[in-house]
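We emphasize that the prediction below concerns an isolated chain of 206 residues; any contacts that depend on oligomerization or on bound cofactors are therefore not represented. The input was used exactly as deposited, without trimming of termini.
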Amino acid sequence: MLEPTEFGYGGFSFHWGDHICGIFDSHAQQMDIMSGFIGAGLRAEQRCVWVSPPPSAEGLRNALAEMGGDAITIEASSQLLVLDQIDFYLRGGVFDPERTIDLIHSLLEDNAREGYPAMRFANDVSWLSKELVDPTAWEIFESRLTHQISALPMVMMCQYNRHQVSGDMIVTALETHPTVLLGDHFHRNPFFSPVPIGPTDSREII
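Result of the prediction step, given as a C-alpha cell string:
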C-alpha cells in the first residue's frame, strides 16, 4: 500500500483507502478545497475521477484553469475523468448500488491497466436533493464503500453541500465516513460507526 500523501489543501494528508466526507456551506468553498485536492493528484500523476452534476463539473474545470491547468487536455489524456452523477448512480432513474460499486471496481481495473499508481475519486452528491433515494439504502451503500476501499489504492472524497441535501443525509454521511472535512478542518469523525451496515464485498482489485 502506498504511503500517506498530500491532500492538496491546508497541509492535510490522507492514507490510501480512506473514505472521506466533506461537508460544505457553499459552492465556492467546495471548489476552493476540491480543486486543490484534484490538482495535487494531477501533479502527482495519479488518475482523478470527478462525479458531479454539470455545474459542479464546470466549476472544477474553471478552478483548475485558474490554477494554470488545462482541463481539456488533461481530460483528453484520460488522467482526469469527469462523469455525470445521474449516469453513474442511477439506472432507469433508480439508484442502483450494485451497478455503482461495479463501476468503481471497473475504474480501478482500468487504472491498473493504464499504469496509474493510485486514484483520487471525488463525488458531489447534490443529486440526492432531487432524486428519490431510500436513506437506508444510501446508508448501506456508503458503509459498504468504507469497508471495501480500505485496502485499495484509492481515496474517495464524498462532497455534501449542507444547503443542497437533507439533514438525514448529512447524518448518514457522518455515520458512514471515518474522516470528515467540515468547513476547512479535518477531523477523525466521532460519529462514525465502524460496524458494517449490510453486506460487504470481498472482491480484490489488483
